[in-house]
């Protein structure tokens, strides 16, 4: 990827520019650089750049991400360069100016790929860890089955547009101080289709498409996490004029677990032991992803010690192996003692060396280092 100009610089606005300001500047620049009116060799490149900048800066979420991460995007995946490709600049232009604004519109540009769609799917912690099959109900526009996408009531057909004689374009002579010139624009009567519908299809109202709900099954591999995207190729919007369909991106959102914390593919869990168990060592049960398991607490275990249970974490996504379970030991110091217990602690206390704990070579600082990979 070539070095990209800063989006704010592309539009020539301050970083604090309001949404309205950005739109206003975009409208000016997009008109100025539209390749149909600007025949400078770099007009199309500039036009694309302007649309890309506008696409990001006009969307509050994308703008925030861009402000934080720049062109690299979060995780360095490339802003939009990973799964969500940038939209067609002419499409953005049409959205802002309206279809058939007067410049070239998509209808004259042959096949067009369908738009990508996004579906947000919630998963439980376990579903994400072990993978699952999910059925989702996704909506998209599809060609109307009643009229086969023609827009005309079955039994009737579209008629050639009388305004443009079926060419989809109208020529206008414009006069200016430099003389007159001919401009070719999209026919406003048929929006460039070359045909008009006399009797619109009753099912789709002449819109050629209907909004349909489809059930799709999604295979969630083990080891996914919040933000993971599953691409369902060809399940996005249907393409136009023979163009291929877009993709459907299922974006995952994983619920937290009451016991386990996830850090990458490692699982963190806190384990409480009493002073005697920590001092003398003990066999205790800990929760794991596969149910309770027994581990050994070594004698002299300090508060905050991290015990690693290898290969008890989350399976690596689309790879062999899995992470570890990290058990952080919390030594509970008793707060309520019976008279007898108190007497025992007092007896014990007389015999304890207060320095002893610091001579343990596995210190709390080591544990933190291990835990946070410092
Ligand atoms: Zn129809
Ligand atoms: Zn026409």
Task: Explain what the structure shows.
The structure is a single chain. A four-stranded mixed β-sheet has the order 10-11-15-14. The protein has a three-stranded mixed β-sheet with strand order 1-9-8. By secondary structure, the protein is α+β, with helices and mostly antiparallel strands. A hairpin with a 2-residue loop joins strand 12 and strand 13. It is elongated and about 110 Å long. The structure holds zinc ion (ZN) (2 copies). One zinc ion binds next to loops.
Quick recap:
This protein is of the alpha+beta class and 374 residues long. 24% of the residues lie in helices and 27% in strands.
Strands, helices and their partners?
Blueprint: H1 7-11, H2 19-33, H3 43-57, H4 60-69, H5 89-97, E1 117-123, H6 125-130, E2 132-143, E3 159-160, E4 169-176, E5 179-186, E6 195-196, E7 209-220, E8 229-232, E9 248-254, E10 261-263, E11 266-274, H7 275-280, E12 282-288, E13 291-297, E14 306-309, E15 325-332, H8 339-351, H9 364-372
Helix pairs in contact: 2-3, 3-5
The chain binds zinc ion (2 copies).
Number of strands: 15
Shape: elongated
> Stretches where pLDDT falls below 50 for ≥5 residues?
75-84, 99-107
Strand content: 25-35%
Most strands sheet: 4 strands, mixed
Mean pLDDT, to the nearest integer, reads 84
- Structural class designation: alpha+beta
């Amino acid at each position: 990827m070539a070095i990209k100009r800063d989006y704010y610089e592309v539009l020539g606005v301050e970083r604090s520019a309001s949404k309205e300001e950005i739109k206003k500047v975009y409208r000016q620049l997009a008109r100025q650089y539209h390749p149909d009116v600007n025949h400078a060799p770099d007009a199309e490149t500039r036009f694309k750049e302007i649309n890309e900048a506008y696409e990001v800066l006009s969307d509050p979420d994308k703008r925030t991400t861009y402000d934080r991460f720049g062109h690299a995007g979060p995780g360095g995946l490339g802003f939009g360069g990973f799964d969500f490709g940038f939209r067609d600049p002419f499409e953005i232009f049409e959205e802002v100016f309206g279809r058939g604004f007067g410049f070239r519109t998509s209808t004259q540009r042959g096949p067009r790929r369908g738009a990508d769609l996004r579906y947000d799917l919630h998963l439980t912690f376990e579903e994400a860890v072990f993978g699952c099959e999910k059925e989702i109900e996704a909506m998209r526009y599809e060609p109307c089955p009643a009229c086969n996408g023609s827009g005309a009531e079955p039994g009737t057909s579209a008629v050639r547009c009388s305004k443009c004689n079926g060419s989809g374009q109208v020529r206008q002579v414009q006069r200016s101080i430099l003389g007159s010139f001919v401009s070719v624009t999209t026919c406003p009567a048929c929006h460039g289709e070359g045909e008009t519908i006399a009797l619109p299809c009753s099912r789709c109202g002449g819109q050629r498409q209907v909004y349909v709900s489809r059930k799709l099954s999604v295979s969630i591999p083990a080891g996914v996490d919040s933000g993971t995207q599953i691409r369902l190729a060809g399940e996005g919007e249907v393409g136009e004029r023979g163009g291929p369909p877009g993709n459907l991106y299922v974006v995952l959102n994983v619920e937290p677990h009451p016991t386990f914390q996830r850090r990458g593919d490692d699982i963190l869990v806190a384990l409480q032991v009493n002073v005697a168990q920590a001092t003398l060592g003990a066999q205790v049960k800990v929760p794991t992803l596969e149910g309770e398991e027994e581990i050994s607490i070594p004698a002299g275990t300090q508060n905050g010690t991290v015990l690693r249970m290898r290969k008890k974490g989350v399976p690596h996504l689309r790879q062999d192996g899995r992470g570890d379970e990290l058990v952080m030991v919390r030594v509970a110091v008793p707060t309520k003692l019976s008279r007898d217990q108190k007497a025992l602690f007092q007896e014990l206390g007389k015999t304890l060396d207060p320095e002893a704990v610091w001579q343990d070579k596995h210190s709390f600082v080591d544990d933190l280092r291990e835990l946070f990979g410092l």
